[in-house]
UniProtKB/TrEMBL annotation:
Keyword Transcription: yes
PROSITE patterns per record: MADS_BOX_2
Keyword field: Coiled coil, DNA-binding, Nucleus, Transcription, Transcription regulation
Protein name: MADS-box domain-containing protein
Listed InterPro entries: MADS-box/MEF2_TF, TF_MADSbox, TF_MADSbox_sf
GO cellular component: nucleus
Domain (MADS-box): residue spans on this chain: 12-55
Subcellular location: Nucleus
Segments forming a coiled coil: 87-167
Originating species: Linum trigynum
GO molecular function: DNA binding; protein dimerization activity
Length: 243
């Protein structure tokens, strides 16, 4: 790891990135090992950043101080009582601040909901106006304009919904027409194939009749076309010819 530039600008840019990376590593260590990890960091300007994977950073300090000397391995001085009480006081103060913040947030949300409720109630009064409270012509005119605008909005919404329903109906009809046209096109192809085979058969019969009075000559060409005509007429359904 290379040390960052010692300039104030370099430290300001590097610290937030490194801080987030350290907090991420602490979270990963806590998840992998099942431990409670606490961090205390100070920015180049002296801003405190505390982090604890479970609970608060004060809880980790108190848990450490309350351990026996053998477990602490003499890392804490004998003046631990003076440190223990301030930490507990700090923990209580922080809990109080967090509760106050939650209360203020809830009060803000409650005020916002009350404001929305008052606005809705005022709006509903315009639809169910008490006529005996109308004291001037201007007030009656304002009420009339409000109702006229509301009716216009309802009519506009109604027309929009009708147009959407008509478009959906037209789309369904166009799909049905497309299916019918495709079936008719298939029938026309079948009819054309039938007419071609019938024409070829008539040409062969006519040519053989012109060649003699003893009946059609059983040539190889005649037998081949006659066989093809028989196959077409037996396998294909001949549609009704349209006028």
């Amino acid at each position: 790891m290379k040390k960052s530039n010692s300039t104030s600008l370099g430290l300001k840019v590097t610290y937030p990135k490194r801080r987030d990376a350290i907090v991420k590593k602490a979270t990963e260590l806590s998840l992998l090992c099942g431990t409670n990890v606490g961090l205390i960091l100070f920015s180049p300007k002296g801003k405190l950043t505390s982090f604890a994977t479970h609970g608060r950073i004060e809880d980790i300090f108190l848990q450490y101080i309350e351990q026996s000397n053998e477990l602490r391995k003499g890392c804490v001085s004998t003046n631990q009582a003076n440190l223990h009480q301030p930490l507990k006081q700090l923990k209580r103060e922080r809990e109080m601040l967090e509760k106050l913040e939650r209360i203020e947030t809830l009060e803000g949300k409650l005020q916002q909901l009350n404001q929305q409720q008052r606005e809705k109630q005022d709006k509903m009064k315009c639809y169910n106006y008490e006529m005996h409270k109308v004291s001037s012509t201007s007030e009656a005119l304002l009420h009339q304009q409000f109702l006229t605008k509301a009716i216009h909005n309802v009519e506009h919404l109604k027309a929009k919904m009708i147009n959407m329903e008509e478009e959906q109906s037209q789309n369904l009809k166009s799909i049905e027409v497309a299916d019918v046209d495709s079936e008719e096109f298939d029938d026309l192809l079948t009819w054309g194939e039938y007419m071609n085979s019938e024409k070829n058969r008539n040409e062969v019969i006519e040519r053989n009749q012109n060649g003699g009075t003893s009946g059609p000559h059983l040539s190889l060409e005649f037998l081949t076309k006659q066989k093809q005509w028989n196959l077409n007429t037996s396998s294909a359904k001949i549609p009704n010819k349209r006028v």
